[in-house]
Every structure is written in C-alpha cells, then in structure tokens.
Design goal:
Radius of gyration: 25 Å
Structural class: alpha/beta
Number of helices: 17
Largest sheet: 8 strands, parallel, barrel
CATH superfamily of one domain: Glycosidases
Strand content: 15-25%
Oligomer: single chain
Mean pLDDT: 95
Strand order of the largest sheet: 1-2-5-11-12-13-14-15
Length: 499
C-alpha cells in the first residue's frame, strides 16, 4: 500500500487509447502488465504520486452499440479521427458491465502485477468506481433487478420515458430507470441503482471492497448523486414518499478503510456539494468552482475562493483539464496557459494532470473511442511543464505551510487587483508565487510573511523557471511590501534566500 504525501500529484490516463498507442509503438498488443517500465519511470521523474487508469473495467457491448447509433457521438469521433471506423467505438467506461478488467487490457493477475510495478516506482494506483449505475447489460439487471430503481410499465407495451424493459415476459414486466444527472437527459446505456434499498447499498459496498484489493484508491464517478437529498430529489415521483435509507458514503468509506487504512477516496462532485462529501469521509473532492473561475478569468472570485479555510484547501482536487473538460491549451490559449498552470500547480490540495496536457494536446477524445490520433508536442509548453513540475516536487510544497499574501496598490493605480500571491514555507525553504491573471500589465506590493525578516538584511529572489534573479533590501520589503510589476498573464515563481 502506497501512502500519498500531502498535496499529491495524480496523473490521469485514458487506458483504452493509451494502450492502443503503446501497442502500436511496440508492434504488438500489450496488456496492463506489459506496459514499458520507462513510462512509469518518466511519470515518477515528473513528480507524480499516483496514476489513475481511467476506464479499466469491462465495457458494455450494448453501450458500444448505442454509441455507434448516436449521431452526436459518431460526429465527435469523426471530428477527432480522420480515418474513423465504427469499430473504433468501444463503449463508455462509465457503463460498467462488470468490475473485471476489460479483457483486451488483461486479467486480475495483470492488475496485481501492474500494482506491484507501480509500487516499485513509488506510484499509487487509482481506479474507477462508478456507484450510481451499471451498464444495462450488467448481470444484476436480470439476476437481481430489485437492486435497481423500478416502476411498472405505463401499459403492457411501454416503459415511462427514461426507463427500459429489464425483464419482459408474459409473467413479468419490469421497467428499470436509466442512470441520470437531474440536469441532463438520462444516460441510456446505464441502469440506475436504487440507494433507498439497503440491499443495493450492501452490494455496492461489496463491489468497492473488491475493487480496493486491486488498487490504492478510487475516483468515484458523480459521487454527489448518491447523497440522500440528491437521490430523493432526482427520483421524486418514482420513490415511496416515506423512502428512507442511511447515507451510503460513510458506510462504504468506513468499510473500505477497515481493511486498508490509507485507501484514498476521490469524489467527482459538483453543485457546491464537496463539503458534504468531505464530511462523509472523502480524502479529496473535485474543485470545479476554481476551474470555472480560471476559465472565466474572475480574479476577485478566485481570490475569495482561495481565502476559504486552509484545511479545506488541502482536500481539493485541482485541475485545468480532465477527460470531461476541453483541453487546457484550447481553453486558455498560449498566453494564459502558463499562468493557469502555475496557479493550479502551486496551491494546496491534490493536483490532477491529464495525459497529453503537458504536451499541449488540443483534441478532446470522446471516452467511447478506443484510439486517438497522434498530436504534435508543443515543445515550449512541455519544457515549461518540466521545469514547473520539478519545482513543485520540492518538499516545501508538500510539507510546508501555505499562506495567501495580501497585496496593496496605490490610489492612482489599482491594477494590483489583477494579482494573486501566496507563500510556502518549510524551515528555511521559502517560496513566493505571484501571478498576473489579466491581459494588461499590473503592479502591486506583496505583503510577505513577517517572520521572514528576522536577522536578515537582504532577500534574494530567484525564479528557477524563468532564470530571473533580484536582490532586495529586507527592511524595504518589510515596510512597504515586495514590489511586483508583471506583464499580462505573466508570473513570478520565486525561491527566497535570506542574506
């Protein structure tokens, strides 16, 4: 079992497309245990703590069939692959037919061997857990339909909208709901589990325990849908008015931790419900709010978001892209991307890095695709990411104390409102990060932590990413703050030496 350090770096890989790519390079089909060791060595050198292999579980043939018949999905795939073929669609990784590895990826023995290899490199293995629903052709649909949300047919011939026939014989007609997010149409390749049923909860706790034997943590898909209030609101009208059940997540998390104390639970969560999932026992929750604010460029709101209590900051999962969001370079563009990545990489909390992000990939790959086109690496961005990752791998960013810095301006110059700044300190190690998250030049005076000035005449500020170096009188900084003037979308990444 690998225990993650504070503020870990997690690397997300689309397993289907990546294995296809590696197999092409090697000239033979590779399974999980045959991935070249150089791939893991490279990720460790970049400072990664964990690898999330997105989409490892068995795909649903029915999901693949539905995807091939859905014009919107086919159009997305054709836009990505110029030589697209229907067989390139392998179904959604979030319509799980069974919690066995997808056969073309390997077996449970291969997963065990992969986990051992990753541990040899000091990397933890994170896998998917999709608790809200299963695929429509999961064995439970026929064997244990009572685990799902059911209604009677509208008439002898039809299920209500958003439901499908699970059992249809002259003696038995059962309609099961498709899984859904209440703000979007149903996922028609999925079957909705009924969390008002204690037997369903027991069954999914058992699944989580099984999954936990093969990994060091799980990323829980759409975790907030299982919260009692959300589930009842989503399915009101289809549940008995007196439907009651215990909250699932505390039970499931306590059960998994009773066997593996350091098992890591990551929640995909939206709608401001992250705090409830943290209270339920999750280690990290998606910080979609910060991502949206970065995309919008709302500096005042970003600052407010970062002024939340520090313990909460350390349990956020930060990202500037993932498989659900557009590629970062296509969103932020060449000018903003570096400042956005500096913000992302230097805040407390877990950091999610998406395969292809550091290389400047621009194409968003539909999760139903089994292969992806080769993209040309943006060498400048890759070089920048290498330097940034080297710096944020230092212990000060994982064991140190983080603190937001106040910033002052002048009556006739309020451009300091465009600046964001924070510090890190671990013993004699000190860092200051200053970002101008605006297109125009901005100036301000950064209020540096007061304990940095004891028995010191000068502060040397060295930026290892850009190579800049400055020597400033400590007394001047203590009195007036550290002056910073930055061009649009620029940043300072300062190591501080006291002289």
């Amino acid at each position: 079992m690998i225990a993650l350090r504070n503020n870990p770096h997690i690397y997300e890989i689309n397993l289907a497309t990546w294995l296809n790519h590696l197999s092409g390079k090697e000239g033979r089909g590779l399974n999980l245990a045959q991935i070249p060791l150089a791939e893991w060595e490279d990720l460790k050198k970049k400072g990664m703590d964990a690898v999330w292999l997105m989409g490892i579980w068995e795909r649903s043939p029915l999901s693949a069939k539905k995807a091939r018949e859905t014009k919107a999905i086919v159009d997305q795939c054709q836009a990505v692959l110029t030589d697209f073929k229907p067989d390139d669609i392998c179904g959604s990784p979030y319509a799980v037919k069974s919690y066995r590895p997808e056969p073309r990826f390997g077996t449970f023995d291969d997963v065990v061997r992969l986990k051992e290899i990753l541990h040899d490199y000091g990397l933890a293995l994170v896998l998917d857990f999709v608790p809200n629903h299963t695929a429509c052709d999961h064995a439970w649909v026929l064997e244990s339909p009572y685990l799902y949300l059911q209604v009677a047919p509208v008439d002898k011939e039809k299920c209500p909208d958003g439901f499908f026939y699970a059992v249809s014989t002259p003696e038995s007609r059962t309609c099961i709901a498709h899984g859904r997010d209440p703000y979007f149409p149903p996922w028609t390749d999925t079957a909705q589990l009924n969390y008002m049923n204690p037997r369903t909860q027991d069954a999914m706790v058992a699944v989580l325990q099984q999954v936990s034997t093969y990994c060091d943590g799980v990323r829980c898909d759409m975790a907030m849908l299982l919260l009692d209030e959300v589930f009842k609101d989503t399915w009101k009208g289809y549940l008995p008015e007196d439907a009651e059940a215990k909250e699932f997540w505390p039970i499931a998390i306590n059960s998994s931790r009773s066997k593996k104390n350091n098992f890591v639970m990551v929640a995909e969560v939206y709608w401001g419900l992250g705090k409830k999932l943290l209270e339920a026992g999750f280690d990290f929750v998606y910080d979609k709010d910060l991502y949206d604010l970065l995309v919008q460029g709302n500096i005042a709101a970003i600052r407010k978001e970062l002024c939340k209590p520090v313990p909460d900051q350390g349990r956020m999962l930060r990202f500037v892209e993932n498989h659900d969001e557009p590629r970062a370079l296509s969103v932020f563009g060449n000018q903003r991307i570096r400042s956005a990545m500096v913000i992302h990489a230097t805040l407390p909390g877990a950091k999610l890095w998406h395969h292809g992000q550091m290389e400047g990939n621009r194409l968003s790959i539909p999760v139903q695709l089994s292969r992806a086109p080769e993209e040309v690496t943006d060498e400048d961005l890759a070089s920048f990411c290498g330097k940034l990752l080297r710096e944020v791998n230092e212990p000060v960013f994982h064991e140190g104390i983080w603190q937001m810095c106040a910033i002052d301006g002048w009556p006739d110059n309020q451009s300091h409102e465009n600046l964001l700044a924070w510090s890190w300190q671990l013993s004699d190690e000190r860092r200051i990060i200053i970002v101008n998250f605006a297109p125009s030049p901005s100036q301000g005076r950064i209020r540096v932590p007061g304990n940095w000035f004891q028995d010191v005449l000068y502060l040397r500020l060295w930026d290892p990413i850009k190579g800049d170096s400055y020597l400033r009188p400590a007394g001047e900084i203590k009195k007036n703050g550290l002056y910073a003037g930055l061009d649009g979308w620029d940043f300072h990444f300062f190591r501080i030496e006291r002289k």
